Amino acid sequence: MAAIPPVCDFGWPAVDATLRGVDGKMHSIFDQAGPNGLVVAFICNHCPYVKAVIGRIVRDAEDLKAEGIGFVAINSNDAEAYPEDSFANMKLFAAAHGFGFPYLYDEDQATARAYGAACTPDFFGFNNELTLQYRGRLDASRKEAGASDLRRDLFEAMKQVARTGNGPKDQIASVGCSIKWKESA
Fold this sequence. Notes:
Shape: globular
Strand content: 15-25%
Helix content: 10-25%
Number of domains: 1
């Protein structure tokens, strides 16, 4: 089922966590920040919205490095209920798509809860003070990748954040599959 996250809560402080990456190492979210900011993306392996744009996510993460913006992706889905989102499959997904950024496993879902992540993909763009300046879509793609000339909403917003410290006032929310929460005990 499609989910839409809330609008940007400007100034909300990023939350740090140390999570296992597909490289087998532990990574702090804050350690991924560049000198001008950080994007924290909640994604997964099985979501058709993510699959439609994963190449664009990888491209934008790489292009944002030149703007001094770091990037990290986190999978928080319940892998027992959704085996395609398992840690082993995360490794395969990252390798198949040439991730140039850490892909972290939020097994207990505490990080997704701390961020209020709603869907995959869900993008949180922070400035160099690690306060939220963007919570919007990658571009106008949905379950199918849109035209190659779509406006790069995340990329353009984060370029603005890199230059000014502030995100655009007008933002269009991302749309994607809801986070697959574990059953409560």
